[in-house]
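User: Fold this; tokens only.

Assistant: Input:
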Amino acid sequence: MSGGYFDRSTYAMREIANTIERDIARALKPKPEKIQEDYWTIYEKDCFGSYHSHKDFMSFGSYEDAESFLLRDKTIVKAEQKYADRRFFDDGVIFQSKKRYMSDVPDDEQIPVLYSIHHCYYDHYPYNADVLELSNETIDAMKEAYRQIRIAEIYATRVDWMMSGDDSEESFRERIKEDLEEFEKEYATKDWTFSDDNDE
């Protein structure tokens, strides 16, 4: 049977359902062990409205290592208390430049470039891991979305074939019922951890 009444738009419905199915399978895959990060880095504020990593991004094993590296530059000193009190960084201002000043400062105030040493402590999956984290509630909703789209696809396909002259009205009604029954059996026993992407 060829159809064509809906210009084969039903294929897009199946592709949406297949994509949802693949994403559910990804979310249900066993997750790799997370990597723990624990390091110190230096932030530089040379513009009033933002800050960035000092030089290229660098990480240090301790606060002392980061401080030692920063103070090798003899134009950088401990920050005056008035800058620390203004909370330019979440971690507080620790150092300031003796020669460089921020750009884009309101009211032409002269504020030195400021520095903060920040402790980074977090864990993450390996960067090359294909991990999709979804709650059980979200996965259940996606399963129902898959079910509804597949049902809509069945109806649309059968209407397409009838309106294109490939099925009679009687055949349309009979096959709708058969297709829906077959799909509900498939859905009830579906292995959500498997998708076509698992075939290699």
